UniProtKB/TrEMBL annotation:
<dbReference type="InterPro" id="IPR001279">
    <property type="entry name" value="Metallo-B-lactamas"/>
</dbReference>
<dbReference type="InterPro" id="IPR036866">
    <property type="entry name" value="RibonucZ/Hydroxyglut_hydro"/>
</dbReference>
<protein>
    <submittedName>
        <fullName>MBL fold metallo-hydrolase</fullName>
    </submittedName>
</protein>
<dbReference type="InterPro" id="IPR050114">
    <property type="entry name" value="UPF0173_UPF0282_UlaG_hydrolase"/>
</dbReference>
<feature type="signal peptide">
    <location>
        <begin position="1"/>
        <end position="20"/>
    </location>
</feature>
<keyword id="KW-0732">Signal</keyword>
<keyword id="KW-0378">Hydrolase</keyword>
<feature type="domain" description="Metallo-beta-lactamase">
    <location>
        <begin position="75"/>
        <end position="147"/>
    </location>
</feature>
<dbReference type="Pfam" id="PF00753">
    <property type="entry name" value="Lactamase_B"/>
</dbReference>
<dbReference type="GO" id="GO:0016787">
    <property type="term" value="F:hydrolase activity"/>
</dbReference>
Length: 353
């Protein structure tokens, strides 16, 4: 399917050529910081004087695919870093605005363009440190020799590691599997991106946006990394791909590692994968069943690219049908595009109490 993405883009280029705010002191923050953080995390969550984000909450603010700005116990960081730009202004932010929130880190799940095309730019503008696999870091350093990147994940699927570079928050990584097309098992019906939206007609791509994107179409995966964040007595898991754990030889090791993480308070996980073409959403719900979250929030299910993606509402019923096929059924906070982009109220957890 990655080749299909490259082909589609090539065709498009042709066609379209207080206590809640710890650390708040008398000094005023840069007004750009306050403005940017208020836009991303909501004005009610940001101190208007200092720009500090509430330390008693976990906030995820979605900006397309599996990309989120995160405020966790007052720390601000990104998970994945690409603002979908095929449909101009569909996602209401920019790499410059995300850099302006001054993230301390950018955690990369894998390095395909739809997850990391803006990572180096945002890191350069903001001073953020990139975090991922050794392959991710090597690739980012090819883009910019000055980029700071911590290689924390193992190379073998099922491997776990810890990262202590995010002060006050424990980070555990699990090297897992990227999605992959496999033979049908018959467990669930196939899921195709049908019908595609009409956005290609109503909001056609602009040549300059496609030109910037074209340079990233061949970006390597570099391994798939899942992150678990421990803050207070909460554990939050995020992943941007789901691999064929029931059909790949490494699957049992990955599932065992995922089970050791659970149960968790919140799982923000991908539900789109190449294997859905033959096996529906079975891979996605296997991850959920292993991790056992109290709440699940889907990602990578929006209208992020022509032909191969559709609005989130088109797969909503299929997702809930698939969820009914497993033993663990969490509360679901289903995100819908574009209304839930930069809507932090949709994914907020209290840390107090």
């Amino acid at each position: 399917m990655h080749r299909r993405v490259v082909l589609v883009c090539a065709l498009l280029l042709t066609v379209f050529a207080g206590s809640a705010f710890p650390g708040a002191g008398p000094a005023r923050a840069d007004s750009d910081l306050v403005k940017a953080r208020a836009a991303i995390f909501g004005a009610d969550n940001v101190d208007a004087q200092t720009g500090a984000v509430r330390a008693d909450r976990v906030i995820f603010s979605w900006f397309g695919v599996s990309n989120f700005a995160v405020a966790m116990a007052g720390k601000v960081f990104l998970v994945d870093a690409w603002v979908p730009n095929v449909y101009r202004n569909y996602v209401p932010t920019t790499p410059a605005q995300l850099a302006a929130i001054k993230p301390s880190h950018i955690f990369i799940g894998h390095a395909h363009f739809d997850h990391a095309a803006d990572a180096v730019e945002i890191a350069a503008r903001s001073g953020a440190r990139l975090v991922g696999s050794a392959e991710h870091c090597a690739f980012f350093r090819q883009e910019s020799s000055s980029v700071r990147c911590d290689a924390v994940a193992g190379s073998r699927p099922g491997t776990t590691a810890t990262y202590d570079g995010l002060e006050g928050i424990g980070v555990t990584t699990v090297t897992h599997l990227h999605s992959e097309l496999k033979a049908p098992t018959g467990d669930l019906p196939p899921l195709l991106p049908i019908p595609p939206s009409d956005r290609l007609i109503t909001d056609p791509p602009q040549p300059d946006d496609l030109g910037r994107l074209a340079g990233h179409l061949g970006d390597p995966e570099g391994g798939a990394v899942l992150y678990a964040f421990d803050v207070g007595d909460r554990r939050i898991v995020w992943n941007d791909s789901v691999g064929p754990v029931a059909q790949d030889p490494a699957g049992p090791a990955v599932l065992a590692a995922l089970r050791r993480l659970g149960p968790v308070d919140l799982h923000v996980g991908s539900i789109q994968g190449f294997n859905e073409i033959t096996n529906g959403l079975k891979d996605a719900v296997r991850y959920i069943d292993a991790i056992r979250p109290k709440m699940f929030v889907p990602n990578h299910h929006d209208d992020w690219f022509p032909v191969i993606a559709t609005p989130a509402t088109t797969r909503e019923k299929s997702f809930f049908d698939a969820l009914a096929s497993i033993d663990h059924r969490p509360e679901v906070r289903y995100l819908r595009d574009p209304s839930d982009y930069l809507n932090p109220d949709r994914i907020t957890l209290d840390l107090a109490g």
